[in-house]
Amino acid sequence: MANPSDYKHEYFNVTFPAEYVAHVEINRPEKMNAFKEVMWINLQKIFQTLSHDPSVRAILLTGAGDRAFTAGLDVQAASQGSMSQTSSDPARTANALRRHILDFQACITALEDCEKPVIAILHGISFGLALDMSLACDIRLSTTTTKFSVKEVDIGLAADIGTLSRLPHAVGNLSWVKDITLTARIFGSDEALTHGLVSGVYADKAAAVEKGLEIAKTIASKSPVAVVGTKEIVNYSRDRTVADGLRYTAVWNAAMVQTQDAKDAMLSGLQKRKPTFSKL
Fold first, then answer.
1. Which residue of 18, 72, 141, 222 pairs with 129 in a disulfide if CB–CB is 3.0 to 4.6 A?
2. Signal sequence: where (predicted)?
């Protein structure tokens, strides 16, 4: 069992609702789970720890309360944080901003880099950073009342934490990507499902969380060697040619098919029993 004391970080609740399953809850409901600077850092710490925790094989990500997964960036807090610091020299200001943007990008990329699959449950208001985070996840589910928006053009900037880079890969429709990113319009789950932004829509948050937990438990029952390898290869292949993906798969599996997990899985199939696998 994972050690809860390893996951005590401000503005987040981390629980373990099933064997090998972690549930990360963004916990700032009074501000609609809007992010201020410490939350970015804590999110990164949590997912880096989960990535290497042998007692975790799948992760659920939600927001506290029913109003919002996250309303995005806490603009008021950001205006007083490190991003607001400037120099009299434009080049030095630009270099400091570049460093901060890269640091913030890395906090969100921690979800994508996490070895374990992450399932995002998008509910209520899911604006701005909600898209950045969920697009770095592996599976996205939503509810009939979820409201999405890539909000950044409304605050005078191009989204810079991941949406503009990951969204075209996730949905494969550049016209729609430009529609929602250039207008910042609010859209619902039916449209998100039509374009492949989410893979399922459920009646409410409770139903979506229940389905997400069901998926997480199914993933957690599989060989952790196979699951880690599958996520790694899919993400690698997404950004490269088919030939590159095939070569990488061959190199990866040259080592990984030697696992005891493969033997146990095949034997359990022959014996018609559910296999169990060692921690990774």
1. 72
2. none
